[in-house]
Every structure is written in structure tokens, then in C-alpha cells.
Amino acid sequence: MQIDAVDQRIIALLVADARASYADIGARVSLSAPAVKRRVDRLRATGVIRGFTAVVDPAAVGWTTEAFVELFCAGRTTPAQIGVAARRHPEVVGAYTVSGEADALVHLRAADIAHLEAALERLRAESFVTSTRSTIVLSRLVESPGVGPSAGTS
């Protein structure tokens, strides 16, 4: 599917505020509300936009402790196996296969160190995990919910 500059701008505006009206978006990209709706419908139908979601501030719900955990896995553990296991743990906010020594990188978020430790122990108990290496996040410097260089810009 071809995505033009207007589609990219619409996507960036939706990433910044998924509740923005088609009229508001149209005013920003010089299109009518129905034209924006048609474009959004096409972007959804082709899978470019997969859905709309609420972005929750982890601090507001008390999950202020986070870590990145390198997973080292046994033998021929597949990315699918890692993904299935990661989804079993509510503290996992992201899981990725990576290059380098580790097989995967898992992003955990928890209420405090004790909660983080419990989550890490449950993750380590997965049958394919042979070892882990953890890095605790001290502060967030940059965070963008969007895709590409224009995401979230006005």
C-alpha cells in the first residue's frame, strides 16, 4: 500500500491523540472530515493502523519500577515460544529478539523492587530460560509512542 505525506501526517496526529476528531485532523491536513475518515478507514483495512488504545501513565497506577532483562535460552527456543511465555506475565510490557549474546530482551514494569524481583523469578522459571541479565531503569530520557520521525509532531 502506498502511504503519502498526508497519510503520514494523519497517522502522526492519531498517534499524538487517537481521540482527535476527523474534523480536527482535517483542519490540520487540509482535508474534509469525510476525506480523513476514508483515509483512516483505508489505513485500518490494510493493517497500517491496527487499532486505537489508551496510553496509561505507569506512575499513576503505581508501576514505577522497570527493568530490561536479557534472556538466554536453551537450544532451539523459537521467538514464538518466547512471545507466548512473555504474554503470560502481566509485568512484561515488551519482548524482542535481539542480536548479540542474549536471545531476547524483555521490558518489565512493576510496583517496586520486590514486585520486580517476583516477576523476574517467574520469568526465570520458564522452562527454556537458562539465565538472565537485568538492567534497572533509573530515569526515562526519551519516549515516543509513535512510528517514524514525524510521529507526535504538530
UniProtKB/TrEMBL annotation:
UniProt protein name: Leucine-responsive regulatory protein
Keywords, ordered alphabetically: DNA-binding, Transcription, Transcription regulation
Organism encoding this protein: Micromonospora noduli
Listed GO CC annotations: cytosol
Gene3D superfamilies for this protein: 3.30.70.920, Winged helix-like DNA-binding domain superfamily/Winged helix DNA-binding domain
GO terms of biological process kind: response to amino acid
Keyword hit for Transcription regulation: yes
Gene Ontology molecular-function annotations: sequence-specific DNA binding
Domain HTH asnC-type residue range list: 3-64
InterPro entries noted in UniProt: AsnC-type_HTH_dom (IPR000485), Dimeric_a/b-barrel (IPR011008), Tscrpt_reg_AsnC-like (IPR019888), Tscrpt_reg_AsnC/Lrp_C (IPR019887), WH-like_DNA-bd_sf (IPR036388), WH_DNA-bd_sf (IPR036390)
Record-linked SMART domains: HTH_ASNC (SM00344)
